[in-house]
Design goal:
This protein is an alpha/beta fold. The chain contains 8 helices and 9 strands.
Length: 233
Amino acid sequence: YFAQAVAALRKVRGVDKVAVLVVSMDAADADILQVAMSVDFAPLRVVFHPPRADLLRMEPVLAIKQHWMWLQTTVWEQLPETRSWRGALALLEEDHVVTPDYLEVVQVLWDMKTRTCAGHCWAVFVRYGCMDKDDGDASKVCKSNAVVNTGIAIDRDIYSRIQASDFAHFPDGWDWSLFHLAQTGQMPDGQLGPAVSRVSNVGTDGATVNHQGDAFLLAQLAYSQVGETGQGL
C-alpha cells in the first residue's frame, strides 16, 4: 500500500516545493523504510514512535490515536522544518493514493476556507466527492459538518485547540475524538471538500477493517468517484 501511495505522490504537481515530507513509523520495518528512502522528489524526514505493546494488542485504535497525537506534537513543536510553520499541514495515511492535482486542490480549498469559512471550518479535506451522478458540476466545493478523516489538512490553531481539549481522554480513535471536539464546541465543526474526491484508500487490512470484514466498512473505502487530472475546481 505504501509503495502505491509514494508512487502517486511522486506524480503530484508541486510536491517538490513542500517544506518537508514527514514519514512517521511505529517500527523500523525494513520494507517500509526502503520505500520511504526512495523519496527523491521532496525533502524527507523519517520519524519513529514505537507504540505501547499492550495498548497495540488490546486497543489498536487507541494506539493509533496515541501515535497520531505524538506526530502532531513532533511536527508542530519539534521538527526544525515545521516548528515555526504557520501554514497548513496535509495529512495522509500509508494507503492513501492521491491524484496529480492533490496539492493544487488542497491550496484552493485552504484559500477558500481562509476567505469564507474562518472561524467555522477546522479543516479541509480531499475525499468528500459530493457530486452525485445527476450533478455535472465537478468544480463546486462542499461544506460538511461531520468529520471526514481522509486527506485532511489542518493548521497550528487547530493543533492548539486539540492540545487544550479533552482529546487525549476521549475513549475512541483520533477521528471520532475530533468529531467529539467539533460536537462539543471545542473546535469549529465545518470542513470544506471538493465535489470529486482526490484520494483513494487502497488498503483493506488494518485496525478497523480487513478484506474479510464487515461489508459496510469495506464499502467506505470505495469512494464513488476519484478525480483525474484537470477535473474539478
